[in-house]
Amino acid sequence: MSYSFEYIDIILLAMIAGFIFLRLRGILGKKTGFEGKIPPQFEKEFQKTNITPKPVSENFDEVSQKEFLKGAKIAYETIITDFSDSDNKLIASKPLLSKKIYDQFKEALEDRANKGHFAEITFIGIKSAVIKTHKKIEDSLEVTVDFVSEIITCIKDKDKNIVSGDSDKIKTVYDTWVFSKDIKSSNPNWLLINTIT
Length: 197
Prior knowledge:
- It is a single chain.
- By secondary structure, this protein is of the alpha+beta class.
- The chain has helices at residues 2-28, 40-48, 62-82, 99-114; strands at residues 118-137, 140-156, 162-165, 171-182, 191-196.
């Protein structure tokens, strides 16, 4: 009679052990090791440019995207605000601009100054910043961002008469900017290489 109780105990323990095993398997999963996966919104872009996620510096994952957008927003505000500089100096923005963009901005500022005009820009804020595309070209990563911002802006002449814009009206501005970074460089900065209108 005592043997039958021992068998029942063994069966019960086996059932409990099996239940615990199944629960752990359900919670922890069956697979082991790191299984990196490209975020869905960039999967097509990776396929187009024949990129496979290898080193972290080349893998523009979700965390990298968030960090990038934080910096991109700061760069956007800095560059827009700096463009109102009446002394024709892009001091704060220069490290954020490619030579091509820097030269274009400088030329526009000089042209404005030659006309005796100056800009008044009040940056209200960024409503949204969304990564549109991401691709790798040789040793560079290029990221295109759609910005929607609110700005009060106007151009005045030397007598402070408004030539264009409105000093009292908030304007919604839509910009598409392309940033680039050399993945082999120790310089962490991204450069603005193009503006699309």
